[in-house]
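Thread: histidine kinase, structure

OP (GT): Posting the sequence first so everyone is looking at the same thing. Length is 447 residues per the record. Can we get the structure tokens written out before standup tomorrow? I want them in the notebook alongside the other entries.
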Amino acid sequence: MNYRAYIFALFLRILLIVSVILVLVYTIYNHYSGYSVLATLAILYLFINTYTFVKRRFVAMDDFFEAVKYRDFSRWFPEDRGPKDIRFLYTGFNEINRTIKEINSQNQAQFVYLQKILEMVDIGIIAYNLESGDVLWSNDSFGDILDIPSFKNVRFVENRKPELFNTIFETYHREPNSISIALQNESIKILISDTVFQVGEDAFKLIVIQDIDTTLNKNESESWKKLLSVMTHEIMNSIAPISSLADTLQRNVQMAIETPEASHLELEDLNSGIKTIKNRSEGLLKFAKTYRSLSKVTNLNLQRTKVSELFNNIQRLMQPSIQAKNIDISFNITSPKLELDIDTHLIEQVLINLILNAVDACKHIANAEIKVVAVQNPNRDIVLKVFDNGSGIPQDILENIFVPFFTSKATGSGIGLSLCKQIMLLHKGRIIVKSVEGEGSVFSLVF
């Protein structure tokens, strides 16, 4: 029975009660005592029936509200027995309970999902009540980073490590802040930030910490692995032929010493072999000097420079030799007012390096073209881009092109792009590459 049907049934009962009361008044006025008794009984029956009709609905609703009060959404109300209006009401209650259980189930699944994600990350997270100190939630990484066992109240840390408690829990870090903390046998550097949030009348503090040392060591280790891999490859390429040639020459000299009559030592061959060893040794020395040059660029001589002047200098320097190779080169600036705070000589070196790489990529390309462009992004970043329609960079080596000494060229040192990246990092900028093999490349210097 829906709401309108219930109102209609209640209105009908009230109408009947009013009608019977009028009949009772009429019978009393006309002294029909027999009819008066029947009318009185009818009124009494209608009052009881209406009271029962209204009461059972309120009892059912009160029963449901009591279940809601105690969050008992597992209760099932019988839909197949009792008056029709109550059965309809029970159907509605069951539908509400079913919906709430589904919502709770979804929320629980989302909470478990989020909890598992936060437990898997290597960033320490804790939320606790500011007044009581009770921990609302914490992941294992938080205890692992601080080298403390699991706890339910932050006072546990205060009792065991007061200095650590003051640094982590009492001090506020509204912005991410790098700090050093002393543990049992070492001092580690962590990145910490926190925020306070309100839930009802309770205030909670959320703290996030990250072990910087471990992250840096991991990244440094990966960088060293790449660097050593490339260096080993380059050194072995030089040492292997030197060792082989030296071994051959030694055998020839040894045979000439032991059996001078049977063997004839060609001095020209000996001289040629020694010369080869000398050249390869010089190559190794050059390789070592190139490695040392990586650490030379450490300071900047910053000055306000117009991008147009920067481009004009490079254009005068490089355009004649590039066009002599039948490669078209152009320089474009979206706004002549663009200016940068840069070390002009170093950025010129970066652009020259990128342009020479583009020339190499366009060697065997018809209608070869190089474009050097300066634009300003909507976020105010200034970007210098070097486009070419050359051979492109294979995807399998694209991620290694900035690794020191890595090169795909027969005569390359593998140092140019590494220096470019280091110079951009010193300028607090970035160098980005996008390339499609067979279509060309674009290197972007983002300031």
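GT: Both are above now. Quick notes for whoever picks this up: The domain at 121-215 is CATH 3.30.450.20 (Beta-Lactamase). The chain has four domains: 3-103, 121-215, 217-293, 303-446.
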